[in-house]
Amino acid sequence: MSKETTTTAESTARKPPKQMNAADNADPSSSTEIARTDACHDKRYSTLSRFWELENGTDCGTFRIRGYRPLSFTVIGSNTVNEQPSSSAANHTALAPVNYSNTETRLQLSMRTKVAQGLLTHGDSERKDSLWFAYSQQSYWQVFSSNISRPFRTTDHEPELVYVYPTDARLPFDWRLRYSGVGLVHQSNGQSLPLSRSWNRVYLMAGVELDNRWMVQARVWKRLAENAASDDNPGIENTVGRAELKAMWNVNQKHSVGLTWLHSLRQDGNGSARLEWLRTIGSRDDGGRSNLRLHTQLFSGYGDSLIDYNRKRTVFSVGLSLLDF
Q1: Where are the domains of the chain?
Q2: How far, in Å, CA of 263 to CA of 267, rounded?
Q3: Tag placement on the chain: N or C end, fewer CB within 10 Å?
């Protein structure tokens, strides 16, 4: 083999995947690190592509358990706590107040699995659509309230079905539209009257990114109607909101800043805002970035938990979160 042929072959071997953009090419991950991981964690691809497995190069197959929202344990302080939850629905107001503390802990569990893929993109050599089932659970634990036996104040359960369709549309200023999708979600606190709260929604969503520095994801939803007799929380969409916009800025390898904004899409402007900062803690054995984060959040608005759908409060939290695994 000639020297010229050898050089060409080596150059071809070093060429990044076709789906990878310029920012991904600058990623310091070595070929050894990539070899030790699987496709949906291949850092040569963008964050959104890995998260939703949008390309053949980021596909990890079906029925694999992955993270969805962060798995987290945080200590929180709030300006108010709902001692006697109420709703405008009949028989949905607690009979007596409970002396809850404004300081408590929050635990969040969240995972998902891909149940099908290639439904509409069958035969596409680059893109892969997917259908996911997800489950999230958030609990508020009054761990510091020994006087009332440290109860769990409330727990929300949220099963979800999500269909994701991959795209790669170029937008102005080097932004890229990466996916669109539709979802069906049920949220409930699993309680009986008078504390029962639940609702069902169908939503549309989309996500854009700028290299691996910025990600913006949006959802807009429609509540599925219930009759008055079964509606635990009338008007929840007017307080919690009808749309969500989430932006994440990866400042560098250690720090990320995010903002999540929910809005009622009405003149009253109800909804909420959540500002968060995450700092990477530690590293993997192969030298890559750990998935463990110091996680700090500031929330203000309605719907921090389902029992607070009609109660506005401000919450500051600090703890640890484990991102997508």
Answers
A1: 67-322
A2: 10
A3: N
